[in-house]
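User: quick one, fold this
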Amino acid sequence: MGEERALTGLRVLDLANNIAGSYCGKLLADFGAEVIKVEPPKEGNPLRKKAPFWKDEQDKEKSGTFFYLNTNKKSLTLDITKQEGAEVFKKLVKDSDVVIEDFEPGKMKEWGLGYDELKKENPKLIMTSITWFGQDGPYKDFKANNFTAYGIGGAMYVMRPTRWPDTRPAVLGGYQAEYTAGLIAYIVTMAALISPKEEGKWIDLSVMEAVTSTLTGIMADYSYLGLSRRTLPWAIHGFPTQENYPCKDGYVNLTPGIGGTQAIADLIEKPEERENPLLVKAGARVKEPEKFEALILPWLKEHTKWEITEKAQKLRLAFAPILSPGELPDDPQIKAREFFVKTEHPEMKEVTYPGAPAKLSESPWKEGRAPLLGEHTQEVLGSIGLSENDIKGLQEKGIV
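Assistant:
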């Protein structure tokens, strides 16, 4: 028996081809669930083709994206689109707690694996279905990606520089819409599992709605005030807001107005400016931000982000460095909490990757690697009573 973790004893069948569902499965696996990644034979999960690749070698076993999203999972190759493969999947469902899938609406039913069919095999089954727009509605059959979901979900509209609110909307780097949906999928899956009603549940999760659910404050602004935050340059309801400014080695973030603005004069070594209206009155900064910049930028550009931050901290000013992904592993706070972890992989050797999203004192998260394609096929199919000859027969038919 291995170390007991929070979700030890939970069995999950992960059919997800995209980031959201795979991330949901990853969180379950890293906290102890037995998560079986069900992949098409030969080529495997589509995420195996997604960059970046280890040493830029395009290989199904060397995708950094697949690795991160599938740590601690097992890999089973099984073609569920064929009747014989679907029947094997149903046998797996009998002894599983959760199915995660992200096919377009109706596709699982087309293969005889819809929720109603699977519930006959396991009345307590939780099925988490993640689609771009949900199982119904006028958009349900539309295709999308992270970019379109972030835009149509409303989050992109407010992503503009505060000084230039009429510029074109921007998008956050990475796949934030999908990771947001994956995190919410994990939460609602756990909610379904701990429900006092011991019965099956079908979770219908829309990536668009997951994005929109993060806009609660902004939607309240619009509902009550008839405006969006992007229409308020340099201020949110009268309070000076954050700006990012260049410095000697990158950028720093500052919030003028929090922490005693007059101390900025001491920061930039111009104590004679302590009574400057730009440092005394928020309205002056809002009205003439260019003059405020002209006051502080020359000094910022002569100092590094950490020099600025450390001096600002002593003056109780709300300044912070803007760190790049390359700088994060060396950040003292990150290092002190041992956030990044290392693990061994048969093809990529030692891999360093982001660790636990939260620390559980009695049932810890555990580092691990992603599985090789089909690595656990014999083990998983053997667990439902298939013999070596049975599995060999399925392999000859291209089912596994």
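User: anything notable?
Assistant: The mean pLDDT is 91.
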